Amino acid sequence: MIANFSLFFAFYILTPLLPLYLSETFGATKDVIGLVLSGYTVTALLMRPFSGYVVDSYPRKTVLMVCYVAFAIFFAGYLAASTLLLFTIVRTLHGGPFGALTVANSTVAIDVLPSSRRNEGIGYYGLSNNLAMALAPTIGIFVYHQTHSFELLFWLALIIAFAGLAIDATVRLPHSVAAAVKRSASRSQKLSLDRFFLLRGWLLGTNMVFFGFCFGVLSNYLAIYSKEQLGITGGTGTYFMLCSIGLMLSRLQGGRALRQGRLTHNASEGMVISLVGYTLFILMPTLSSSPASVAVGYYGSALLIGLGNGHMWPAFQNMMIAMARHTERGTANSTILVSWDVGMGLGVLLGGVLAEVFGYSLVFWTVSAVNAVGVALYFLFTRSFFTRGRIDSSAL
């Protein structure tokens, strides 16, 4: 959990400020910013299916350490990138080890959890991811406002990534798991699409794309939208802090349901709460221009989106794992993460293009609409798809 927190903290401490960095340092336009930032997600997307195959076929601890070393080293590339082209190359290539590392780390986490506590344990493991998403931008924005130094932020990300690497080096896999992976690797297996993407969970993955799109837009364009459209220059850090509070509250509210295997209940509750949050975010400033209304919509949405994602993400991850066999955990993890990446990448890319043509208000109205489509898809099709296709019959 701590190593996972470190890797996502190193990533998200830069995420909301990179559009400002590209604009202020290289004079990049909004559509160029979206194109540059989407490269990271596209590379992670391309790498993750192969990562699932490698994690399921080779010693997981070795794969984990190699991926973490590569992920940490790339942060030094941001310090060395002196032109927009060099930055684009470094940022795009960095997505490869990030994609592989998230699959390897989450699969090892599943391996070290006792089966009787797996649903609950994955929920807490996912909380480390979500907390990093919420806390890191807050700290990054605070550091930037105090120092106005992007170089310092790049150094912080580098140091935190290597700290996570040192922590992961202490992890020990159970002998039974290591032996099972070794036997799987020793058998001659015909390569097929199932080795790279869990086809039994395709609709779960499709549904996750919609929610990834929404968070991709929010996490990358919140700071610049707040500054240009709402006139909020110092509240972005508070926004992500409230989001983290919502994530922590979701553990208190949803922990029992995860222990009982009520995955569809947690997923349903989370996505509806998130939908209310995204709608509140864009609706309140349009209903009234008063500072109080803007503040209610802005900060209230942060709490709701954090609460909703805290319920939804671990539920979806557990649902995907419940549809996989023991030797397919890496593939199941890569599938749900690939789906999130597709959504995030589309959000970053299309968000920048739409903002350049129509402005950020339309972008965030689009986010609310996309989230609503994702909620409808889940209740109409995905929930029953999961209950019919799950292998772990205790997961409901």
Percent strand equals under 5%
Q: Count of helical segments?
A: 15
How helix-rich are the residues, as a percent range?
A: over 70%
- Quaternary structure of the protein: single chain
The mean pLDDT is 85
Sum up the overall morphology in one term: globular
Low-confidence residue ranges:
none
Calculate Rg over CA atoms. Answer: 20 Å
End-to-end gap: 25 Å
Describe the largest sheet.
none
What structural class is derived from the secondary structure elements? mainly alpha
Taken in chain order, the helices and strands follow as: HHHHHHHHHHHHHHH
Please tally the β strands and state the result: 0
Q: Which terms summarize this structure?
A:
396 residues, mainly alpha, 15 helices
Which helices and strands appear, and what pairs or packs with what?
Elements: H1 2-12, H2 18-26, H3 30-57, H4 60-73, H5 75-80, H6 84-112, H7 118-147, H8 150-168, H9 175-186, H10 202-230, H11 236-259, H12 263-287, H13 291-322, H14 329-358, H15 360-389
Helix pairs in contact: 1-7, 1-8, 2-3, 3-6, 3-14, 4-6, 4-8, 6-14, 7-11, 7-13, 10-13, 10-14, 10-15, 11-13, 12-13, 12-15, 13-14, 14-15
